[in-house]
Design brief:
By secondary structure, the protein is an alpha/beta fold. It folds into two domains: 114 residues, no CATH class; 130 residues, no CATH class. It is 24% helix and 22% strand. It contains nine helices and eleven strands. The strands form two sheets. Strands 6-7-8-9-10-11 form a six-stranded mixed β-sheet, with helices on both faces. A five-stranded mixed β-sheet has the order 1-2-3-4-5, with helices on both faces. Helix 1 crosses helix 2. The longest helix is centred in the last third of the chain and has 10 residues. The model has no long low-confidence stretch (mean pLDDT 95).
Length: 268
């Protein structure tokens, strides 16, 4: 592996080889994503601001990193596609900077490539963050044998979730534009956060890919629910975008996440 900075489509693609490096990952900058990267010992990171959204959850991870002495910054959702590291590097402009990143010369409005170069000067961490995060997977409802599962990350979807409804805290963007990254199992329905929709409508780009597989898909507004927090999607979210399969089953714009899920369960 190169000694230079890493550019990836998701923090979930980080390996043990990321320890001590500056990374650009096209995940949201919420606490869950920041924690996931810090657990792998990265020295500094650039993420995506995901529209910033409710309670500034889209950049909440930057404060979390700063409290642990780690540099972090986020690119503006209007400047580059969420889920696409190469596009963030090419087009991204910084919208939010924490204090350790500012100390390294990263500034609002800076192009992402320059910011990443400056973050590469961050001192390596003494050790990866080892603290645990609250449970990221919960079963929140059942209906005629179909489970509704709240997952803070779409990366937690597995084969056992086939035929179930998944309510995630993840953004609704494909990783690297690849349709196969929409969801890893043939679920009945899936809910995401729209991440401000953003450049090229990347924040909702999973929806056509789900449609092609016959999966009902929708996103809730980033201003209604905290990105990275599946329970906020479930409890607070209101639908901002959906695919034709979801609409045919009773989904609609403006619906609460709970009402959307009820429609999916009753009309599948």
């Amino acid at each position: 592996m190169s000694d230079g900075p890493l550019v990836l489509d998701s923090v979930t693609h980080l390996s043990a080889g990321a320890a001590g490096k500056a990374v650009l990952c096209a995940s949201h900058s919420g606490i869950y994503a920041a924690w996931y990267a810090a657990r792998r010992g990265v020295a500094a990171m650039i993420l995506h601001d995901a529209g910033i959204g409710r309670e500034r959850a889209g950049v909440g991870g930057l404060d979390w990193l700063a409290s642990r002495g780690l540099a972090g910054a986020a690119v503006c959702h209007r400047s580059a596609r969420i889920g696409d590291g190469a596009d963030m590097l090419a087009r991204g402009r910084i919208s939010t900077v924490n204090a350790p990143a500012a100390a390294l010369g990263v500034e609002q409005g800076m192009v992402a490539a320059e910011a990443l170069s400056r973050l590469a000067a961050a001192p390596p961490t003494a050790a990866p963050v080892t603290e645990a995060m609250d449970e990221a997977r919960r079963e929140v409802a059942t209906h005629r044998g179909i489970r509704v599962i709240a997952l803070d990350s779409n990366g937690l979807v597995g084969p056992a979730d086939a035929g179930q409804v998944v309510v995630t805290g993840s953004h609704g963007g494909l990783l690297g534009g690849k349709p196969e990254t929409a969801v890893k199992a043939p679920v009945l329905a899936a809910l995401y956060n729209d991440a401000g929709i953003g450049a090229d409508a990347a924040g909702i780009s999973r929806l056509p890919a789900l449609e092609a597989r016959g999966i009902a898909g929708a996103c809730v507004s980033c201003f209604s629910a905290r990105i990275g927090d599946a329970m906020s999607t479930w409890q607070d979210g209101f639908v901002s975008a959906l695919n034709p399969t979801a609409a045919a089953r009773g989904g609609r714009i403006g619906q609460s996440a709970r009402d959307f899920v009820t429609a999916m369960l009753e009309h599948h």
